Amino acid sequence: MGGIPPYVLIALVVIVYLVSSVKILTEYERGVIFRLGKLLPQPKGPGVVLVFVPIDRIVTVSLRTVVLDVPPQDVITRDNVSVKVNAVLYFRVMDPRRAIVEVENFHYATSQLAQTTLRSVLGQVELDDLLSQRDRLNQQLQQILDQHTDTWGIKVSSVEVKHVDLPPDMQRAMARQAEAEREKRAKIIHAAGELESSEKLAQAAHIIAAEPVALTLRYLSTLTEIATEQNSTIVFPLPIELLNMLKPFKSDQSS
Question: For the chain, how far is it from start to end, CA to CA, in angstroms?
Answer without folding.
Answer: 167
